[in-house]
Design a protein that fits this description.
Strand content: 35-45%
Number of strands: 11
Largest sheet: 4 strands, antiparallel
CATH class: Mainly Beta
Shape: globular
Order of helices and strands: HEEEEEEEEEHEE
Length: 156
């Protein structure tokens, strides 16, 4: 078994023991490669920004905005990327990352602030240009509609 497979298996076993059967979402994109998100911020009326002055090497406060007539949902999961050579690249995580699969509502014509701490998963960020990506979902006839929003910030 490779080291990463052992780490993932151990993490999942611990999560089941500690979480008492809680549902977790394993973060699949922690490789450090080119960003898989080619389309972000394309949904009219949905946006996300970083609260002014809140970005630091260990976390930030993000603000989700819903200017539509529809209710959207989101979870704790996020992706953190760094701009290198003009391209967005995933930041390699320190370990396997899992998020509780809670769902939060973003009501029509509302905003919601979320504290985002990334030091446990990514360590202290070095100086540079970053973006945080989140997925927003809404129930749609026959399934779900998914949109990705991103907010850029600088760590000095």
């Amino acid at each position: 078994m490779t080291a990463i497979v052992r780490e993932i298996a151990g993490f999942l076993a611990a999560a089941l023991l500690v979480g008492g059967g809680a549902v977790w979402s394993f973060h699949p994109w922690t490789t450090g490669g080119v960003s898989p998100f080619s389309a972000v911020n394309e949904a009219e009326g949905l946006a996300m920004h970083i609260e002014a002055g809140s970005a630091s090497p260990t976390g930030t406060i993000l603000c989700l905005e819903n200017k539509t007539d529809r209710e959207w949902q989101f979870g704790q999961e996020y992706w953190l990327e760094k701009k290198e050579g003009g391209e967005w690249h995933e930041i390699r995580s320190l370990r396997a990352v899992a998020f509780d699969t809670l769902s939060y509502l973003l009501a029509p014509h509302s905003t919601r602030e979320e504290v985002c701490s990334f030091s446990d998963s990514y360590g202290r960020l070095t100086s540079g240009e970053y973006r945080l990506v989140k997925e927003l979902l809404r129930e749609k006839s026959g399934g779900w509609e998914s949109e990705y929003v991103a907010a850029e910030f600088v760590v000095e």
